[in-house]
Amino acid sequence: MKVASKYIPLLIGVAVAAGVFIGSKLNFGDSTEKIFATNSKKDKLNRLIDYIDFEYVDQINTDSIVDVTVNGILKNLDPHSVYIPGSDYESIAEDMRGKFVGIGVSFYIYNDTVSVISTIDGGPAEKVGILPGDRILYANQKPLYGEFSVRDSITTSLRGKLNSKVELTVFRRSENRKIDFKLTRKEVALRSVDAGYKINDSLGYIKVNRFAETTYDEFEETLKKLVKSGIQSLVLDLRNNPGGYVFAAERMLDDFLEKGTLILKTKNKSGVIENTITRRNGLFEEGKIYVLVNENTASASEIVAGALQDNDKGVIIGRRTYGKGLVQREMSLGDGSAVRLTVARYYTPTGRSIQRPYINGDRSYFRDYQQRYENGELVSIDSISVNDSLRFVTPKGKVVYGGGGILPDVFIPKDLSEENEIINYLSQSGLMNYFVFEELDKNRTQFDAYDAELFYEEYKISETLFDEFIDYSRLGDSEFQFSGYENLLKKHLKATIAEQLFGGDYYQKIINQNDPMIEKVLEFENNEE
Fold first, then answer.
1. How far is 497 from 503, CA to CA, in rounded Å?
2. Whole-angstrom Cα distance, residue 249 to residue 255?
3. Predicted confidence (pLDDT) per residue in 191-210, tens digit
4. How confident is the model at residue 481 (pLDDT cuts 50, 70, 90)?
């Protein structure tokens, strides 16, 4: 396997809420002179499309022309005003709703067969007894294997209307037999809280991967359990969180700040400013909070970090955040498509805008990670340039800056070694998941003696398993030396096994071992004892 000399993680480009409406069709009875006389921009655009549709010499798909036109218009506005084609709308909407109607399984297409990785807690599949490792062969007698194993077709077969029925035939390898199941499709949660657990007796941890409709409900349930268990401090992990719904971020802030605290300002094109304040007494107003951020922390995540920082609540740890301070609103275009149009800018409580400049166009804007890499900002806080004209001061005298993301209170450099980047790539690309699935599929019973906590405390990746993965991934063919990174690679392998056996909490718990940002939190906690 040829391994590139550098792996630069893809900068999470986030397009959050917005909209624009492109006018209605014109009547061809109107004269050309009338169109230009009225100088109606919408009329001209629609008339041009009609001319192409009815008069152009070749057959043209005018739907595609409209898509290109809308994208071209939005591209000239700002980087975050976007068009959502009708074909993509439902999947995007499901992600933001935080739920879908289906049977509740996570699966791979493995050797042209739908293979269950895990079932979702409380979902239809778990309730009827479908197990990890089961192969789903038929849905309502329709084959889902071999030439029929097209992911879109499989998703359509497993999802459907609420309370609709589906009959599945699965092959259970451990019993060498086929089993029929009858299921009723239900709403299934797309989890946005990846993990929530206690790091120690007084310190809790919650990782949030986005801000969807259901995010706060998940967060509140997790926080209540941790508070009940006696935590006094909390790590809120917003690393790689691209944002989402602002209202979910606002509800989260309600739990950390006193009622009546200013958390957000927005200003529209007319200059109208709206202030958002906390509206209730929260679950964790008296507790200490540490917020973990990085270069992929964006939008609603930055609202949370900025509001806490500006109100002198907690400690922001990590690296400068993405820098998205534009508010979008979604608007339907009437044909199943929609646009998300920037309608306002948001400002933190001190009045700073964290939006990065985009005057040089989208290409420059979305190359920001590469620019941070090249100027050394990811490894040294001294390489971050700030604008003194965008200097603000919090109520307790802390100096903060606007103009491009949230600067952390405590800087933690990024490990940019090629070996570390490759290990992260292997973990995120799915290759490690496939390897672990195959290993579990050979013999799941080898883990029957472990519960989640025992696995976390005692299980070790053997040298044999480690060497098998090196061969499987063809890392042995690369030019890199992994001797100094063997423990890190083993940690990712163990975490991936834990995720497939026991779920996200234990994946994150293992990944967080020796994490530099978590270590910094523990240092703060130990110094205050």
1. 9
2. 10
3. 999 999 999 999 999 999 99
4. low
Check if the beta carbon of residue 317 is closer than 8 Å to that of residue 256. Answer: no
Place of tokens 């980087």: 79
CA nearest to 77, candidates 352, 299, 267, 326: 326
Closest by alpha carbon to 158, among 183, 126, 132?
A: 183
Q: Are 406 and 332 in contact (CB under 8 A)?
A: no
Report the 10 Å Cβ neighbour count for 89: 16
Question: Residue 16: pLDDT above 50?
Answer: no
Does the pTM surpass 0.85? The reply is yes
- Indicate the DSSP class of residue 244: B
CA max distance for the chain: 83
d(CA 308, CA 151): 42
SS3 (DSSP) at 132: coil
Question: To which H or E segment does residue 216 belong?
Answer: helix 215-228
Q: Domains in the chain, please, with CATH? A: 32-80 (no CATH), 99-189 (2.30.42.10), 193-327+348-411 (3.90.226.10), 418-522 (no CATH)
Q: 329-388: per-residue pLDDT in tens? A: 999 988 899 999 999 999 999 999 999 999 888 888 888 889 999 999 999 988 988 888
Provide the edge-to-edge strand list for the sheet that holds 410-411: 193-198, 203-208, 233-237, 288-293, 315-318, 410-411
- The tokens for 451 are 């519960």
Q: Which two tokens stand for residue 491?
A: 């940690």
